[in-house]
Amino acid sequence: MTERKKLHVNLFEMNCVGHISHGLWVHPDNNRHRFNDIEFWLELARLLEYGTFDAVFLADVIGTYDGFRGGPQTALTEAVQIPNNDPLLVIPAMAAVTRGLGFAATFSTTYEPPFAFARRMSTLDHLTRGRVAWNVVTSYLPNAARNFGLEDEVDHDHRYEIADEYMEVLYKLWEGSWEDDAVIQDVDNRVYTDPSKVHYIDHAGRYYKVAGPHLSQPSPQRTPVIYQAGSSAAGRAFGGKHAEAVFVGGGSLADTRGYIEGYREQARAAGRDPRTIKFMAGAAVIVGSTERDVARKVEEFTALRSVDGHLAHSGAGLDWTRYSPDTRVGDIIARKVPGYQRLIRQYRPEQTVGDVLTRIGGFNRGQFFVAGTPKVVADTIENWLDEGGIDGINLRQFLTPGTAQDFIELVVPELRRRGRYRESYEDGETLRERLFGAGRTRLPEDHPGTRYAARHRAPEQVEAP
Amino acid sequence: MTERKKLHVNLFEMNCVGHISHGLWVHPDNNRHRFNDIEFWLELARLLEYGTFDAVFLADVIGTYDGFRGGPQTALTEAVQIPNNDPLLVIPAMAAVTRGLGFAATFSTTYEPPFAFARRMSTLDHLTRGRVAWNVVTSYLPNAARNFGLEDEVDHDHRYEIADEYMEVLYKLWEGSWEDDAVIQDVDNRVYTDPSKVHYIDHAGRYYKVAGPHLSQPSPQRTPVIYQAGSSAAGRAFGGKHAEAVFVGGGSLADTRGYIEGYREQARAAGRDPRTIKFMAGAAVIVGSTERDVARKVEEFTALRSVDGHLAHSGAGLDWTRYSPDTRVGDIIARKVPGYQRLIRQYRPEQTVGDVLTRIGGFNRGQFFVAGTPKVVADTIENWLDEGGIDGINLRQFLTPGTAQDFIELVVPELRRRGRYRESYEDGETLRERLFGAGRTRLPEDHPGTRYAARHRAPEQVEAP
Q1: How far is A85 from chain B (nearest CA, A)?
Q2: Is B157 annotated as a binding residue?
Q3: Please, what are the domains in chain B?
Q4: Binding residue per annotation — B219?
Q5: For the complex shown, is ipTM > 0.90?
Q6: Which DSSP symbol is given to A186?
Q7: Which of A173, A332, B231, B376 has a Cα at 20 to 30 A from B258?
Q8: Where does FMN bind (chains A, B) (predicted)?
């Protein structure tokens, strides 16, 4: 009998007030308004470490949702991802008070130079001793483009073309620029780094020109664990090539299983072992020790949610209110109105605007949603692990830190009883080892990033067994 | 009688092995090789907080010193600022274990987009509760340019023109985009932010086009304390306009006094109260409890210093070895060879290459250098405060954490006895208050950054008394 999969859990977070549970900032037990405060992050990190979570997964946007009703009013009033702060900068603070918790940070390949980002991630990988992941996104907000000097978003497929070259530059810096034994710290001969083992990358591509060498010496993981969430064709092709962990959201169990199978097929086509990708489903879990507790929570969260907030968010740059309820999403996409690109990822073309509006902000949309006692929640999780084909979840927060606290106090013990949840951080020190097993600290050999590792080595080293 | 000036002290640091004391990484008591380790930074922060330092001042480069002897060999062998890591990312870790210590981070205006940097600094100002400063640089290494897609450095004066517009964009974001009372967190009416008090900046200049709004809500200081170290004409004009604290390095006491007077004149010409600028001299202090201790340290540090390391560093992109000893620095500048731009800042045109080579890496070059017992050191410091016109020092490290430890154990008590050093962090919570007095958390009214604060306010607010 094969061992039963254990659940991987990330807390789905963002350095802002209203991430995805819009309206709930008003709940008296919610701490979202404290996101500017370093103590908010230290407390959260200690809690997740206590619950042996894999990681905190930090989403990000670099613009404002200002399409809905023709301006940023709704986003601001409802605190829909604005105000927000940089996601990378809370990681060192959380790393200072943890030893096992991982950190996944979102960063876009579209607007900032790869050389500086490469050093930022290497710095984080050093400071966390190999506990970081990068969620690769290409950005979708029209306002984000205007914050970086452009008139409008870069075309969706074109963004992935840029992203692909961006990855190449990063792999060259992370994997190829410094050999493992470059830093020798030879005090007697006064040689800190052996210069013959550090290489310029001299990248000259269509979008980037980067000389190198990388400024950071090799960090524990070198390349951070690569996360991705693309669901468009271009996104999945990109992810099939690069992703090690994929964030799956919004579908039913059957849809998700099919999606995962298709995705693994993409990885196989890219020459990779498809088992080296883990799939994390976005999961809404409302748990209570009694049915009554559960019902109370569902009722509270439902009553407080902001439909306007969800509309402003879901449309990205788009204004839903400009369309009649029977307009098909596919027609809006065809018109390429501001914000249309996100629709490709979030909706099916045959859905209508009325459809979208009535479902918005609701909890039970056939996706990974469960409200129940620990037994019910654990049953659902086991079902998604075994029948849905997922490897873990990104736990959506209704309350901070309430949602994580409930999960740790009520769900984790039940999963542990069933052998479905780790007892401690026993599986290696780095995040990659946590996902793929002790000793697997670096990218696997079949990952395209490793191609650039060998390129700069002396021929005899490449050919050695 | 006016109160005697108290000394401001920053520790001069860099997220790397060899910052400016090249060769000393081999010293058995030196911890520089631990710079990748988060504990290195936590220990240092706790030590400086115990010594009530103003701040740790983090230098940075985004390229390699690869001009000397035609390649990066010397820089790598001697660990001259490579390997290095990002300076901003160690700040949150240090902030997690301190309450009073400030953090000054170097960032260049030449290669990365202002919108993203604005959010990074606001995030740091939030996480530290107003304890950050920004050391504005425009970068000088030819290799840095090649890491960001350019063939060679942007011309020196042109860089300052870009920097000036960069500052304008930042002020608009930091000072103008969000009014102080924009975030109201009105639970009853479900209004997080009053949208009428958040503004697009719609900047469209010669180099940048940025829509806004800023993504972060106002942080304690809004604009971080602005540090600068320009000594060229363009640099001083820039600093006279923008700087609140100026890093002065390399000159004699008399030169420094003259420099400071000239700088204050620039500030006056820019319409600012010249007293709102603080001057920090780069200071090399070797202190021991006995003369014998001092002599031993001087001897050790002198014996271990790497002349090659200093040559690779001081020339930036330049190769000193290509010139005869009687070549004038001014002639090299005139030829505009790679790396010439840094020479403008570091040397006088009439100096010869031979001059530079013989003095390199030496300690006593007429600048702020003192080796002695606590009494001798304190006398020197008092003299520089009173006769040199400085307000504080950037303490150069020979050993980490030895240099700071010695200063705290031996010099600080002596300065305190003389009323020249703070007893505790009594002077406000933010770094700007630490420099300019309790209550002065924001930019002063005569600073050009505040011009952009009023611009977006409603007319009745601007005109109100």
Answers
A1: 5
A2: no
A3: 8-294+368-443 (3.20.20.30)
A4: no
A5: yes
A6: E
A7: B376
A8: 60, 106, 156, 160, 231-232
